[in-house]
Amino acid sequence: MKGFIKLYLDSYRGLSNATWMLTIIMLINRSGAMVIPFLGVYMMQVLNFSITDTGTVLSCFGFGAVAGSILGGWLTDKAGHFKVQLITLFLSVPVFFILPVLKTPLSLSIGVFILSLITETFRPANSVSIASYARPENLTKAFSLNRMAMNLGFSIGPALGGFLASISYNWLFYGNSISVALAGLIFLFYFWSRTNNTSSGNQTDESVADTSPVISPWKDYTFLIFSLLCSIYCICFFQFLSTLPLFYREVHHLNEWNIGLILAFSGLVVFSLEMLLIHIAQRKMSPAHAIILGTLLCGLAFMLLIFKGGYFLLYSGMFILCISEILAIPFMASVSLKRASKQKQGAYMGINALCFSIAHILSPFLGTRVVNSFGYSTLWLAIGVVTIITSIGFWQIMKKM
Questions:
Q1: What percent of the chain is modeled with pLDDT above 90?
Q2: pLDDT at 124 over 80
Q3: Which of 37, 155, 196, 371 is the one with CA 20 to 30 A from 4?
Q4: Widest CA span in the chain
């Protein structure tokens, strides 16, 4: 028991104060993440959108995210990670207040596009900021700590969101706005005077970047193939945010509160296990092995849903999906950053964010249409097959990296 406790505590050691502060800010920001998990249910239950209109609006979130990822990578290399993070945090506040008055598929699509454009511009700057305050040997840990905060916030947000939605969906948008504003204020006061705020985030130790080619990521074809595979994984994984809540509602007849509890459970699993599992994975396996195992577990998690079962099945599938996320996503980020030269960190992390953004487009668009034409079981089976093929792709391409 003492050995386990020591191992658990060791997984948190070696991280800078600034890294911890970025984590706290992320926790506050994500604790208000109530809108996106319930957006599909909101459109179908409150606005009476069809499932295809719902998928289209959710895909517009992805289109904005694609633009934001590219813009964020470019701005981070030009203006610096501090300015990009600060501006995007405060710009998103009024957008959340506007969304509740948008009642048609077209107007809500535009509003969601603008929101995701702003929020995803934040992502590459945040990744470079994490790297700039982390020691090279702790880079994956730093990304994991930040993600742990995201997931703890994601456990708080949907649980609170499910409660607020039962009163009024408008409170989802207002709560999100307040949390982002608070995160922005704390970020401003803590990082305003730090010395590398004005940099583009390229002060990461040279051992992280100097072994990498000084080229544009758009000409690094091995990296682009790796990124494509990351995006395919994310398309499968992000059914978690689009079709999975609809599956809970339509097939298992769960209400908003119970959907929120399952999503909250996922955040708690990642919060409690991510740092420990990353600490063990760094010692026991290569990044390639961790990503491949995570990809296969993603397929397994969704394929479990084909079988009949109650809460135990739903929570078991969510638990496996959380382990998949823990193993795959932090290593995808650290592999991307280590591939970059110091001058191109923002651009490389922009493409890393682009993987997620493309998935935000294609995941709801493809998922809802497969469900509409063939049913949920076909979608879960297809995800299982795709993740097996993607794992083979990772195995091949990462041998070259």
A1: 27
A2: yes
A3: 155
A4: 58
